[in-house]
Amino acid sequence: MRVFILGGSGLIGAAIVRNLVSAGHHVFALARSENSVANLAVMGAWPIRGDIHNPGPWCDKLPVVDAVIHAACDFSADMGGVDAGMLIELLRTLHRQSGPKAPALPRFIYTGGSWLYPSSKSGDHIHDETAPFAPQPGFEWMIAGLTKILSDPALHGMVIHPATVYRTDPPSRTRPPLPGGALHDMARVARDENRVRIVGDGSVIWPLIHADDLAELYRLVLENGERGQSYIGVGIEGIATGDLARQIARTFGRTDCGVVHISPDDIAREYGEWARGLAHSHRMTSQKAIRELGWQPRHNDITRDLQSCVEVTAPLPVAS
User: pLDDT tens digits for 37-49?
Assistant: First the structure.
């Protein structure tokens, strides 16, 4: 398929690009900067210069595609308006491209998120796709966006709701890398300041998903997902942030690395109102995607994933 990806340079999008290219799809991706252009080209995608804040110019030049994956979000205060404006322009382009004689409706995957689902007061309660939405403040706009995609009669619309996303990279011979995504700042502060910061008292439950597993789910939904369906993407149904922090402290900090508790107000002042979601406690399940699409997430042991960042494989002996 010819697939256009929004957010292809981000944590989720880059993993999707790599996955789809390796599966033989022809991938186009929006690139805001020259650095993004270069990175996307290295991954095997065809970069299209543009910005979601100004969609008109690149929508007018968009090549004919079979599918769109929307994984772009900048967490700004006006993201709802940006998303709505971008969708108007992009859908106009897709409708014009497809037309009544097109062999199939264009497929469109919209990215929602676990913060659209209610907070679980009980650690035993697990959300699936049937749970009603109760979005964290600042994320209500996602519901309008996904509703627009799912209800458009000219689209094969689908939605993926990722859990909290993280990434692990193989270590180098010099300095071990930090995990990416939601765990990056926790690991960076553990390494550099010998402490780990978490929001709340450590009882908050986070569902987690590795970016590579999530990218595989996007591919399966792209190729086989049913129109109008939503799929939750989670590899670890839930882990207490206190337990997670202690594992990060042991892996990236020194022996006396401690855990520091901060309030939702403090984290919001530092990162913006969206960061209050870091205090959102809930568990989620991906049984629907596993059952209907055959998805099998491989990263279900966070201890092993964290350790993989620091275990440098010994170099092979040089033949004499």
Answer: 999 999 999 999 9
